[in-house]
Design a protein that fits this description.
The complex is a heterodimer. Chain A is mainly alpha-helical. Chain A contains four helices and no strands. In chain A, helix 1 crosses helix 2 and helix 1 crosses helix 4. Chain B is α/β, with parallel strands linked by helices. Helices cover 31% and strands 26% of the residues of chain B. In chain B, helix 1 packs across helix 2, helix 1 packs parallel to helix 8 and helix 4 crosses helix 5. The chains are: A mainly alpha, B alpha/beta. At the A-B interface, helix 2 of A face helix 9 and helix 14 of B.
């Protein structure tokens, strides 16, 4: 799988859980924290979703901005974790 | 003395020293002083005069720091608004405060427009962010430097109005004077023994007085504040401690719980830390002991505060082990005592309401004379007002304070006050909801987590997902309940009042 196929479920999760179904505000490179889409609780929910959906285990030291702060970052992070 | 004299003092003494560091970029005290002068001139050009209110809805950023000082220098009263606030509440805050000017980040444009459509807000709006249309902060700050006109303030004038949740559900503005805050900044930085070589890491929102005070004490003492947007990516934030040789970490229990999850701190350098300070909710004894063991060179200040007087008390770290659950004694230049229901002073170990006396005590709630009269009452000296906190406490034989609970059903989640009524009102907007009771239940990271007990209207189906989404749409993220429980009935007294204690015990 390439990272494009990871993006769709990630986008859907963010839109459904943090944007109440409105996809208009979300681009693949939107900075999730800066745009007010993610907060600290949201990050924990996102990590739980990624672990459950992609079967990866994410360590505390991996919960950092460069792995999680946009759909693109998350997708490449998951690709790297799954390979 | 005025609060912004602290900034002007730092800019005169140590102009080149970094006052704040945000996102790796340092801003020295001279820059902050001059930028806030420019903004103060613009506020005055827009017609802001002594006593007018200026609100800002911004994430933790250097811009927020500049707006704070700029508003004060223009003679205005600064009102911080959390960027998580939704349109309805924003509209309420702007109208209730009668703000004359408002500064917001352009990423909040949609929400701000929605709020302004609902209310008549006659003031000016200034935008932060390059892609803004309309007046931009960056253009104002590009103007040549000029000092603002002297607005003629004295220290009895208001400097801050901080909105806080009340038991009635609608937020109340706590009015604080220059004299209040000047005193509290001095008092807090004195007992923390802050020095110019301190470096404080602030992950708390500056829209919350505990966060804002890091910037204010920094200006008095001349230390550097490293400002982070949040603690959502804790590992990123904790790396700053080593990077900037951070000496002080102010936090709430949720933050320290997260910090401890990283033990034994591989890849992190925490050797520069001199102290932790905790307020908003008690730090569990197990966490105090773990911090002492793992980061032994850092002392821990257990403190208690409320917006109405900023800070009440702190426990001297030398007595921490002997009094691990205490929040200590009154901070310098204030006094505390505990009274029973008749207003008589309680003896040791008797539970009663905490009363605070001193220069720290607010002027009252903005345009709420009745609620002000309940909180501020005559003290022993004629004409003096003392603060009835609504918090239940007892004192031991040495005079050290122990928190018991609230007189009303307000509780604290992740360090911030939650008004159950505000959350209940939001759920009642759904036609399918017949009854709601919101309570706090103990939770390992939230302190108290928000739980909503909901009874659906007969013949209606309702899912937890619908309830959660309604709350997400209408409330700031902090107020969205962690737990929902659907039931067919709520426990009630014979007179029909919901028995919240039964729901709290149920968990």
């Amino acid at each position: 799988m390439d990272d494009a196929s990871f993006r769709e479920p990630i986008r859907a999760f963010i839109v459904d859980n943090f944007l109440l179904g409105s996809a208009a505000e979300l681009e693949d490179n939107t900075e999730l924290m800066e745009a007010g889409i993610l907060d600290s609780t949201g990050v924990i929910e996102l990590v739980a979703f990624l672990e459950a959906t992609f079967g990866v285990s994410i360590g505390d030291e991996e919960i950092v901005s460069k792995n999680l702060n946009s759909v693109n970052y998350i997708a490449s992070f998951i690709v790297q974790k799954s390979s | 003395m005025l609060l912004h004299d602290y900034l002007r003092g730092a800019a005169a003494r140590v102009p080149e020293k970094a006052g704040v560091i945000v996102g790796g970029q340092a801003y020295n005290f001279r820059t902050i002083d001059e930028e806030s002068d420019r903004l103060a001139c613009e506020f005055q050009r827009l017609g802001v005069v002594r006593g007018d209110r200026v609100a800002a809805m911004l994430e933790n950023s250097v811009e927020l720091v500049i707006v704070l000082w700029g508003a004060l220098k223009a003679g205005a009263v600064f009102i911080p608004i959390s960027p998580g606030v939704k349109a309805d509440k924003l509209g309420f805050l702007l109208t209730d405060s009668g703000a004359a000017a408002f500064v917001a980040h352009v990423s909040l444009r949609r929400r701000v427009d929605e709020a302004l459509e609902q209310v008549s807000y006659p003031g000016a709006t200034i935008w932060v962010g390059e892609d803004a249309t309309g007046p931009r902060l960056s253009d104002i700050l590009a103007q040549p430097h000029r000092a603002p006109a002297d607005p003629g303030l004295i220290d009895q004038d208001l400097c801050l109005i901080i909105y806080t949740s009340g038991s009635t559900g609608s937020p109340k503005g706590v009015m604080l004077t220059h004299r209040n805050i000047y005193n509290n900044v001095w008092s807090i930085s004195t007992y923390l023994k802050n020095q110019p070589d301190d470096v404080i890491l602030c992950v708390l929102p500056l829209s919350f007085d505990y966060g804002l005070f890091q910037v204010l004490t920094g200006a008095r003492v001349g230390f550097t504040v490293v400002i982070e947007r949040s603690f959502a990516y804790p590992y990123d934030v904790l790396k700053r401690i080593g990077e900037h040789r951070v000496t002080g970490l102010p936090g709430v229990p949720t933050i320290f719980a997260k910090l401890l999850e990283f033990a034994p701190f591989e890849g992190l350098d925490l050797s520069s830390l001199r102290y932790f300070s905790n307020t908003a909710a008690p730090l569990p004894a197990a966490h105090i002991l773990a911090l002492r063991k793992l980061i032994p060179q850092a002392t821990i200040f257990s403190m208690f505060g409320l917006t109405e007087c900023t800070r009440v008390s702190y426990l001297d770290p030398s007595r921490l082990e002997a009094k691990i659950t205490s929040v200590g004694r009154a901070m310098p230049n204030s006094e505390t005592y505990i009274v029973d229901e008749r207003g008589l002073r309680c003896g040791p170990r008797e539970i009663g309401e905490l009363v605070v006396r001193g220069t720290s005590v607010m002027r009252g709630y903005w345009r709420r004379p009745e609620e002000t009269a309940k909180a501020l009452r005559e003290g022993d000296i004629p004409g003096e007002k003392v603060l009835f906190t609504g918090d239940l406490f007892w004192k031991d034989e040495d005079g050290d304070l122990y928190f018991v609970g609230r007189r009303d059903d307000v509780f604290k989640c992740r360090g911030e006050k939650v008004s159950p009524r505000e959350v209940e009102a939001c759920l009642f907007e759904l036609d399918s909801v017949a009854e709601v009771a919101v309570v706090g239940v103990p939770h390992p990271t939230d302190g108290m987590a928000i739980k909503a007990h909901v009874v659906p209207r007969e013949g209606h189906n309702i899912s937890e997902d619908q309830l959660r989404k309604q709350c997400m749409r209408r409330l700031e993220p902090l107020l969205v309940p962690r737990f929902f429980e659907l039931s067919t009935a709520l426990p009630k007294t014979d007179s029909g009042k919901i028995i919240k204690t039964a729901l709290r015990q149920k968990g």
